[in-house]
Amino acid sequence: MSEPSGVPSSEYKDKDRNPSWRAELNDNYCKLRRLEQPPKGYDEKGKLVFAAKPVASPQPYILWDVSRDAPPGFGLKVGRKKVYILRRKVMGRSMLATVGNFADFNRIQDARAKAAELARTMIETGQNPNTLARQVNAAEVTLRQVMAAYREHWTTRTQKPAARESLKVFDRVARQHDAWGWADRKVREIDDNEIIKKFLETHKATPTATEQAFRWPTRAIDWFIENEKIRADAQDREPALKGNPFKTLALNGYYRSKEQIEQERHEKGKRNPLRPSADLGPFLEACWSKRLINDNMTGIHYLMLMLLWGCRKSEHAGLVWGELLDELGETGKGRRSTSHVWLKDHPDWGPYVFFYKTKNGRSHRLPITPMVLELLRQRQRCAADEAIRRGFHAKSRPFVFPARSRFSKTGHYMDATDLLDDLREEIGLEKLNRHDLRRSFGAVMTSLGIDEVIKSRFLNHARANVTDTYTQAEWQLLRESMVKIEQAILSKAPNVYNALKPADWPPLPAPAPHVCRPPKPRTGRPRKIGNHQ
Length: 533
What we know:
Elements: E1 12-13, E2 19-23, H1 27-32, E3 39-42, E4 48-50, E5 61-65, E6 74-78, E7 82-90, E8 93-101, H2 108-125, H3 129-139, H4 143-156, H5 164-180, H6 192-203, H7 207-234, H8 248-251, H9 258-268, H10 280-290, H11 297-309, H12 313-316, E9 320-321, E10 340-342, E11 352-355, E12 364-367, H13 370-390, H14 417-427, H15 434-448, H16 452-458, H17 472-490, H18 494-500
Parallel strand pairs: 2-5, 9-10
Antiparallel strand pairs: 1-2, 3-4, 5-6, 6-7, 7-8, 10-11, 11-12
């Protein structure tokens, strides 16, 4: 194929300040063009001359097609990718539209034909066809596309990115939409009456899961609509998607109020904190006895510290030993960005536990009080013995609560559900879950008359402008309050109290230690017995 001829012309700058040139384009000519070897000018015959060697920091450039077969304003933009473009001035407005990627066309004639169609659309509508296409896409968006876009935004945003547990709920909701046959339907075609009917089908049986299945698409579509308004305003057009059909549920009062939810939980007994006067003592005595059975030491320490700190289950499971971390993390994770315990006497805080970026996105620090300190020292000795057995390079080595299995993906202890069920049966409680231990911590604070501001700090319910920064006086007040809470909890179980108290504290009168029931026989296939000759 012959080299195309150029039209002598001075270099032209488009409004995006990409240098542009004129030449008669053909398939081979476009194929040979490279970003690193831009045009340098025209020779005496009017042909474009390109850089012989790659240049440093190349800038995208445009080649306008002067072939008589090309519609006016058709060209090739050469950047990291090569793209056919079309520029037209319609009703005094200059429009630049993308025709398509160079690689998507087998022949340049096909790109020219599509550019001609776009030119007709510009003339007939007075609008950029790319803008019209985006408008149509917004109007035709499906529920699956909106949910996927919101999920991507939620996981990548700077402020409060999604937590792993929240994403699990979100993905479960998306699968529910798929099961209903809604995922691939256009948002604008989902009828509000249909939404109400589907909501009422399952709300009575599973109110919380049902409300999640409809609140998440409401939020995702609202987010999409707000972004569509911004795009429409920038493109001087009306938004293509204006209404959110899922809002009908909130508008017409189908969701439960907070008061109704609390009342239902109370009636169904879903919130069962250990009563300070009746349940705390038997629970802790049973814990202390069960720690010596079936290798339950790690799990028992995990549950007791959850009660003594009032933390969420996701906050303390991954704690590591602070002495294994750098202050700033020069050689990996540091103490400023990792949940950890510090048992030495820190100059500002003394012994402390630090929870990094908790459920609400904020870090949280608590003082370690005398009996918790002794419990953690026992935990440290157990963890050291475990490291010796498994090797100091084991994945579980840095964790305060190492996983029971060396094949664990995380390396740390995670699920105490079965152990908690055994303890519940041991002391004769009908219901008890891990979050109830956090509620028990709150109930003890209420019984002690702890100030509401301090309660909020301990439960990490503080206002968004509260940070992990304390004056010496504030920290001392927190430590004194935490000591009161620790003593109030552990004094209900004198055997536990006496085992953990400092040596100079007087012991409490204690009953005989609790004796746990024998462990249940293990289920499953019997072990194979080797043939010993």
